[in-house]
């Protein structure tokens, strides 16, 4: 067998493992793995720096299958190159409950899955965050420790999604020349020919955004290799348009949408075997081909060993800092810094917007942590995400800590996912809470993957005033609380803001969204505690003077209103308590006893939040009083709006006393 | 005064009305109106076909201020050209509660506001839907009745957003050559120079997507006019890059981000007056300039009259059909067609997926209504949105009724908004329910504007099976129900699907999302009623044999499971009823008596939905039993998933009987 014949058969191993797994599952997508097998073979056998025996080696090249429906391509590669947890049994259990081989690649299900993909465009946008992280970490730690490529296989669907154009423009702007994207240019989408819906010149489009592009025959392995070599010399990110045939080898369905998302069927599969000269049993890879793949999987073992030696040769400080950051541990002095800062706040009692409080907290945090990377979708001065430690990351200076993401909320969120996945960095970035809608596709994946990304969402209610209903979130707190595994924080003052930041940074498997006000709020936590009270999710902020007749639950800017209402109620002879609820999700994690006691048995329960009621019944019951929004907001000065929508201490008192009668 | 001096002063009228209104409100965005005043003056005084005395004239050119933060540009234009409801008092009340002049243009607040803008990129994407509608309506009714342009002013922010790239690629594909976009190319975004985050060659990028582009000096009115004339001859959509100075005229702040979103301040405003030779009092436009504007506002009165004559000269059928469609009335035979169809369904009792049921309903609907325009984000065969009446709309044949939107959910949703706003058409289109996340930015605006757009969201739960958690919505029903003014329908069978479609089509001010299954469901409405039971939002589907011990509330695919549980409970001697809840929002609109009676007083209340609990307490109370999801789904065959997550009749029975003990 010539080398060329062998590498063709190596690609065929991917094709048939994939097609057979789909056939057995009677579900899945054979078209992409069969079409992109040559690209993947060239990449994994000649270029990719990786070590299946050490899947988490920090300096590995990253490979992202953005077209996640082609998951069997990735699973085949992981099996063939020798990842120990990707057995042939897993391949046979493709798409079965509990297998590592889910319908789409799920981060955490198997080693070598760098990110969860499937929702189109996300992987490509993740890869921009990964490639940026590589440059940042390289600037922080040098070529010895961080120097790798990020490779992506993307489909037409990825490129049509708006998120990818946001990510591409950002990557071009940042000149991320170690990012190389293979476009599986097969001219087919689910509905039929791509020309049904698109005539874009994708190469010209990425070039307009500061990329290089090349076009190759996606079934000519040497041409693909030459393109990669050229891309390695590029001073810009590169798109390699690989003209491929979807379902390559399938005798009647190749090159059509029939092979995209359904099993080939026995007859077509047999025809493909014949056409490609593949004679072994299903799920059996001939020994020589498997050996070749396994030895390709060991190609970088020497590189890995040399890298380990370089790490060990570093001074203890560099080494321990690198290891700490890759592990994602916070520095030992973090907690005490937060406590000292909180103490000062309780003494100073500043009256500031919580967005400002967030900036103040970040000033402390960014002084202690070197790994936080801030940013904003062009609302830096509004989101208050920039501190004295964070200067702009530019192509000339990747060693800084602030990203101007541009007006690209979705791309920003997905890039942050990529940064968190890469390791060594903790990304946080901001936009207005209402524009979480734009980022939601990526935010859901942050939660699904369970990674540490912190969304700083300011202007969190009608309290933003005149910008009006397009900019005023009313349903967003509820909609974000609806996402599983997502901490939604809404702090009430400077102290709670610091506590919420501490919790967000310590939370390694659950991402956080911090909702912050535009308007100033008084310090309500005037007595210092070392303890982080927000960790309870909800806690009694002000006790009733006697047995509580009224308990008021509130978050964020409405805590001040609740406290004012409490004062009035107490003056009117109605003992009343106030519970601050900075995080529903953390509250649910408390003991049943704690939860029951906190909700208490006051005859009147009131919830106050300048948003819709959804979710609040859990605190106040179905017959509780809710003071908040019932629809969209309006444009006007803040005082006029709170009065117009009846979110006032007077309204609380009137409603509560009405019920007490 | 020369013509040129006069037109400069006409532009200055926009500049000072805008800057003064922002100054008085002490809030707003003077930069864009001052920068884009020349573009707007040329467009409104020399090209735009419109009639301020008849703002709804169907054949008017559409003008969309995609950069909605520059709202004062639009309000100034409406006042100057003589829209009767845009008085100088309204200008003075800019951004005050109850004024027509909200912080961002709000559709419905004043005549001449064609769409709500502010969230960036939306207006540009709306305009693609408008321009497409113009071509479709032109194909249906001819040049005599429909023949107009769509003009847009977009900023850097609009172009950076992914949604705009989706819309631009779609417009290029469809060769919408009557769409002309002015890019206010002022090199400034909120954070500072655009170069902080972007280096895209926007002209090259749109050309890659099938547009023409031109570059002009945005303060040279004749050059702008020449560019528009060239664009009128284009066979493609056109981007006119207008190099402008943000805050043109402001002596120290022009050309910087300081003028973007804050009042100029008294000194700077005085300096601008001096620089531009503007001497009249605040909010006073010199009589000759106002006259010139008002006469520009009457430029198209003759065109309008001629158009009216052409309409009146049409045969009665054409005329009444055109008028009906523009009014948005449904044809008289619609309701009886639905009733006849429902009757047949209750007799035939087909067992089909509700996505298939939706296709069957659409086959009836599209046969009766000529104005429905279907589509999908490249999931036509999965969303079942195409019927025998709907063939592909192409640049060669705009007279058809189906849009292959491509893999562009956000652009699709915004384009549908544009179609609904244009008038004459009812857009519906599909994707998977989980990808409503991608479209949410536009879906929120559908609800805020209160327009008739119908989202067909299939694969609505873990019931989609093997594609796994990325594709399985669990929080999306709750998250969509959270949006104000949004009907979220989840029908249980063919009959309910037909009823939900009827309600969606009849709902003119509240948009609809119809969540539909991949899996087959039996017909549960086996007895025909002329009455649309889904109109109640929730209704008793199966009564208890005696006084109900258990009431089970369910939606969609879980209604079958609820009915099976009821059968078991009844067999075990526990009278049980089943309530189908196809639409929470319609239920809330019923009388208190109806709601109380329906929820009833069974000692055990159970809700079943293959999604999270959020929102269900309203039916079952805090101590009710919820059978559904508590986190993300998993990849596996449907039967395995329902069993794994415990969403079965057995689980309902066990939980209910456990509570009855």
Automatic annotation (TrEMBL), chains A, B:
Any Gene Ontology biological process: pentose-phosphate shunt
Positions annotated as active site in the UniProt record: 409 (proton donor)
Positions contributing to thiamine diphosphate binding: 69, 118-120, 157, 186, 260, 435
Marked site: Important for catalytic activity: 29, 260
UniProt binding sites for substrate: 29, 260, 355, 382, 459, 467, 471, 518
EC code: 2.2.1.1
Residues annotated as binding Mg(2+): 156, 186, 188
Keyword Hydrolase recorded: no
Alphabetized UniProt keyword annotations: Calcium, Magnesium, Metal-binding, Thiamine pyrophosphate, Transferase
Note on how the cofactor is bound: Binds 1 thiamine pyrophosphate per subunit. During the reaction, the substrate forms a covalent intermediate with the cofactor.
Domain Transketolase-like pyrimidine-binding as annotated: residue spans: 352-523
Keyword Magnesium: yes
Domain of life according to the entry: Bacteria
GO MF annotations in UniProt: metal ion binding; transketolase activity
InterPro entries: THDP-binding (IPR029061), Transketo_C/PFOR_II (IPR009014), Transketolase-like_C_2 (IPR055152), Transketolase-like_Pyr-bd (IPR005475), Transketolase_bac-like (IPR005478), Transketolase_BS (IPR020826), Transketolase_CS (IPR049557), Transketolase_fam (IPR033247)
Subunit architecture: Homodimer.
Role this protein plays: Catalyzes the transfer of a two-carbon ketol group from a ketose donor to an aldose acceptor, via a covalent intermediate with the cofactor thiamine pyrophosphate.
Family, per entry: Belongs to the transketolase family.
Name this protein carries in UniProt: Transketolase
Source species: Phyllobacterium brassicacearum
